[in-house]
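TA notes, week 10

Several of you asked for a full example with nothing omitted. So below is the full record: structure tokens for the whole chain, then the designed sequence directly under it. When grading your own attempts, check the secondary structure regions first.
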């Protein structure tokens, strides 16, 4: 059961990116050692667009490849930490489970340690792991609706709830 949820009507791809960037900024203001965001929706719903914008907002430079064929793309993230006057370094993983057809593939992939460990994990097609993933902090469900996207962001942990509550008011659900 979600602790908090927000419902968004996203006018276009840039609005999807703005939401992802706002969530990334919220994480930089309230960093947690582990963050799991699952991205749900049909093909073309905007999952990879969301993940790319989130990673770009965290400072990832260069090409951000889709992990559709590689299964996982790994990025090092350095965030200025004002509290300790230093830099917070973590790893972000962009994972795509679309090609999984059997839950055993999740077990065999070795991703349990990646997703359950420290760092940020953005997981597309989490339903392909059929409940084997650790509990997601945030679930982002994207659905095309005419020329817009309908997006529901649900927080299932305190970390996720903190991030939702840290979103700027201009992004609040509408």
């Amino acid at each position: 059961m979600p602790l908090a949820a927000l419902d968004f009507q996203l006018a276009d791809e840039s609005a999807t990116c703005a939401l992802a960037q706002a969530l990334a900024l919220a994480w930089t203001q309230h960093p947690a050692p582990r963050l799991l965001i699952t991205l749900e929706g049909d093909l073309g719903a905007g999952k990879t667009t969301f993940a790319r914008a989130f990673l770009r907002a965290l400072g990832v430079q260069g090409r951000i490849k889709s992990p559709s064929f590689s299964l996982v793309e790994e990025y090092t993230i350095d965030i200025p930490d004002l509290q300790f006057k230093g830099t917070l370094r973590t790893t972000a993983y962009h994972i795509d489970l679309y090609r999984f057809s059997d839950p055993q593939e999740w077990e065999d992939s070795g991703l349990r340690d990646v997703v359950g460990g420290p760092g940020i994990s953005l997981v597309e097609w989490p339903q392909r792991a059929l409940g084997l993933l650790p509990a997601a902090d945030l679930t982002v469900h994207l659905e095309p609706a005419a020329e817009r996207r309908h997006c529901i962001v649900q927080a299932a942990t305190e970390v996720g709830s903190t991030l939702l509550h840290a979103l700027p008011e201009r992004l609040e659900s509408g």
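The chain has a mean pLDDT of 86. Use that as a sanity check on your answer.
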